[in-house]
Amino acid sequence: MISLTLNGEPRELDLDPETPLLWVLRDHLGLTGTKYGCGKAECGACIVHLDGEPVNACTTPLSETQGRSVTTIEGLSPDGRHPLQLAWIIEQVPRCGYCQPGQIMMAAALLRKYPRPTDAQIEEAMSRVLCRCGTYDRIRHAVHRAANPEVQNG
Amino acid sequence: MAELGSGPLLSRRGFLKVGALAGGGLVLGICLPCRAERAGTAEGASSAPVPKDLPALAPNAWIRIHADERIELVLARSEAGQGVMTSLPMLLAEELEVGLDQIEVVMAPVAPIYSNRLLGAQATGQSTSARDAWTPLREAGAAARALMIAAAAQVWEVPPSECRAQRGRVHHSDGVRSLSYGELAATASGLTPPELPALKSREAWTLIGTSQQRLDIPEKVSGAARFGLDVRLPGLLFATLYRCPAPGSRVRSWRAAQASKVPGVIDVLAVRNGIAVLADSTWAAMEGRRRLEVSCRPASDRSLDSRRIRSRLEIGLTGGSAVARRDGDVSRALESSAQQIEAVYEVGFQPHVCMEAMNCTADVRADRCALYVPTQAQEEARAVASEITGLPRERVSVHTSLLGGGYGRRLEQDFVVDAVELSMRARRPVQVVWTREDDFRHDYYRPMTLHRLRGGLDAEGRVIAWFHRVVGPSVLARLRPGEMHDSIDDFMVEGAADIPYKVADLRVEYRRADTPAPVGLWRGGGYAHNSFAAECFVDELAILAGRDPLALRRSMLGDSPRYARLLDRVVEIARWGETPRTGRARGLALVSAFGSLIAGVAEVSVEDGRARVHQVFCVADCGQVVHPELVRGQIESGVVYGLTAALKGEITFTDGLVDQSGFDGYPLLRFDEMPEIRVDILPSDADPGGVSGLAVPVVGPAVANALRLLTGKAARSLPIRLSA
User: Fold this and answer.
1) Whole-angstrom distance between the N-terminal and C-terminal Cα of chain B?
2) Would you put residue B248 in left (φ > 0), alpha (ψ -120 to 50) or beta?
3) Nearest-Cα residue of chain A relative to residue B406
4) Looking at residues B188-216, what average pLDDT do you find?
5) Around Cβ B87, how many Cβ atoms within 10 Å?
6) Chain B contact set for A36 (CB, 8 A)
7) Residues 6 or more apart from A123 whose CB is under 8 A from it?
8) Minimal Cα–Cα distance from B641 to chain A, Å?
9) At what angle do helices A136-147 and A100-113 cross, to 10 degrees?
10) Of A127, B260, B323, B513, whose CB neighbour count within 10 A is largest?
11) Is 80 exceeded by the pLDDT of residue A154?
12) How close does chain B come to A86, measured CA to CA in Å?
């Protein structure tokens, strides 16, 4: 039995502790916002927060969440209005949208560490998540927008 | 995307009751996104409200008006990131006189009215959606608007000329009376549809030409968006297939003893495409598959090997071929040239790499079959499911989810075959998931091609002869054999036979050279390989002539204001006339494709033996723009897609196997490799041209042409290989 906090709620999961967190979320908990892209921590589509730190859910076994706190895209905000989500909408970032939960979660972790990140800090962090549709430039604008309250007017 | 199969309430029954439509069968809709209250999650599903069982007015197959004021617009093309979910409803809404905030988008079922005339089937791809929809959807909106006005005129007993439609209401010219479309629906349903009115003039547009907020974005940002992999149905099983890794090879024997022991695995079955593991979760299916013991027969054709394929193609560089275009007498013109040059270009295999790997969910019952699938080809999916199940087509429904990328890969039906077969055998709904390795290994690749070009200049440095032979497998031969003509595959010669330049003596040939590699349609079509060769060759001719590549192109385009304007603008924004910074060079390319034009300039440098692209400037003339930000976005997107293929990765084969099976072997362009991209769209009154694939063919040659200036050597391969 694994006990964790998931999106702010305590959970007890009677599942094989070796199951990657990605599949626990998607197949057992109905949280399909976190995506499967490669299963090998190479693409970043599955990034979630473990105690606030970005991790690839596809290579994080459930056992690693014991006693810890997991946040997924569904839990980033109660209503889809996290500053990053608002910024993503204002900048019209997503195209196919498949990688975007991973992008947003990575950006959220970045902003926790660097509330006003430089371009170099954004680049270093966000290079961890691949986007086949090439939305990188809009992502950069959206991160700056979310980070700068004076600029925010969503 | 809410409602799609979530919880016990599938909404199918509710929608079935909406009723028959004029012009084409039952509409089974999936709200995408749905403004109706959402059903619970799969875990805590509660009874969610059913869409009201009120008959909707359907003035045509594209519009449904409910008495409770809901207005639904039907989308017949797949939303794969290109924005059709917004741009196509804009066409309907403009003429219907409703705002996008007043409508919901519903995915179309399969029906003849929803066919894409440019593709000959209900399908999405090849940069055709806006072009195909431009007039019919506006006409559908206008027809419905006229019907609403006629209904109001009848209610008020006034002439229609005294009535005006705006924001979903009809207003009388007395400035007092108005009725909503919902209020008018009942009256309208009893009327004979009036004559189609004139479409709105450009000056009257409130939506077309504006960058409306995309309707799919809020859900893509909240995590609620439902892609194919996110479909959940009661009793759903998950499956993944072991496919023999060598294309063309088949299973000889297999043992499931270890696989069956994995908790959650329910069954292991031999199916058409391999050995399937059925389980109660995706992970269990994948774990089960890992423990399968399978032995495969070798492929009948053992020559799936990049070096052997290249040799086979090389043979095709000379000898007989089909002629795609013949103007004048190029042989004689070459003979009389003052200078000549010949070059061979090589363009490698490319994978599609959708971020969402292939998948399909099928629910096969005794008397019906439902597909929930990220497909680009709904009509064919239905046909395949009908064939496998033996059910008539009318009993097969196709529910299109959001697509995590398409790029032509989801025109194929292999994942549909997997799911339908398994659901039949399991008698349960089954979701077949491909792993990333499967997605790389079992793709239908952009074909490898070789190109032999010859060009001749006269004494004044003018291009007087142009010869281009394309050598490669045929994509059409498998996909649409009826469209081959005189041994020509139009996909393989587009970008070669229709270059924008005017050369009196010109010949374009196609030598079909099949290889064992599976090939298919890829973003940018034939332009993606042919334009590379043609545009690099133009620069080589410029060097031979001692002329600036821009000036040479202008002289070859003849008197064309459209091209002149395009080149003028790209030259301006790219500062072509100014000397670039030390260590940098600029390259130019020009492509006419899909009814649009694009000019691209890339500014690059070479660092540590590798090309680095700093800036890409694109100017596009794509006719009337429905949604400027979507167009800009597709061009940015095409640049990135094309840059990966130009600089970062390709597909190679060794001894029957694909060498690349993940992002380590085929690295996509990353955030920190993204150039600055500037896109200008030229205003135009012409009908819309295609955009989604437009930038892909222009960026490779622009980069290659820049690199040539830096290295002194022609880059004659794509991906571009800089010699040490």
Assistant:
1) 50
2) left
3) A96
4) 96
5) 27
6) 229, 282, 357, 433
7) A140, B671, B672
8) 7
9) 40
10) B513
11) no
12) 9
Per-residue pLDDT at B581 exceeds 90: yes
From its phi and psi, is residue B482 left (phi > 0), alpha (psi between -120 and 50) or beta? alpha
Res B301 pLDDT > 80: no
Report which secondary-structure segment, H or E, holds B346. strand B339-347
Nearest neighbour of A96 by CB, restricted to B80, B629, B663: B80
Of A126, A132, A137, the CB nearest to B405: A132
Using CB atoms and an 8 Å cut-off, which of residues 18-77 of chain A contact chain B?
Answer: 19-20, 23, 26-40, 42-43, 45, 72-74, 76
Q: Which two tokens stand for residue B387?
A: 């064939």
* Alpha carbon distances (Å) from B427 to B126, B275, B278, B420: 36, 17, 12, 10
Q: List b or e across B618-653, with b for residues whose CB sees 16 or more CB atoms inside 10 angstroms.
A: bbbbbbbbbbebbbbbbbbbbbbbbbbbbbbbbbbb
* B223/A101 CB distance under 8 A: yes
Min Cα distance A110 → chain B (Å) is 15
The stretch B76-98 carries a mean pLDDT of 98
* Dihedral Cα A88, A89, A93, A97, nearest 10 deg: 100
Kindly report the nearest CA distance between residue A131 and chain B, in angstroms.
7
Q: What is the mean pLDDT of residues B233-261?
A: 94
In this structure, the number of other CB atoms found within 10 A of the CB of residue B233 comes to 21
Kindly determine whether residue A132 and residue B668, on different chains, have CB atoms separated by under 8 Å. Answer: yes
* pTM of this prediction exceeds 0.90: yes
- Among B459, B91, B428, which Cα is nearest to B239's? B428
Q: In percent, how much of chain A has pLDDT > 70?
A: 97
Strands (E), B121-279: 163-166, 169-172, 178-180, 237-242, 251-255, 265-271, 274-279
> What is the reported pLDDT for B30?
35
A94 touches chain B (CB under 8 A): yes
E runs forming strands in B483-537: 505-512
- Contact yes or no for A98 and B42 at CB 8 A: no
Size of interface A-B (CB pairs under 8 A): 175
pLDDT per position as a tens digit, B508-550: 999 999 989 999 999 999 999 999 999 999 999 999 999 999 9
Q: Give the ipTM of the model, two decimals please.
A: 0.97
Distance in Å, alpha carbon of B6 to nearest chain A alpha carbon: 9
DSSP state of B49: P
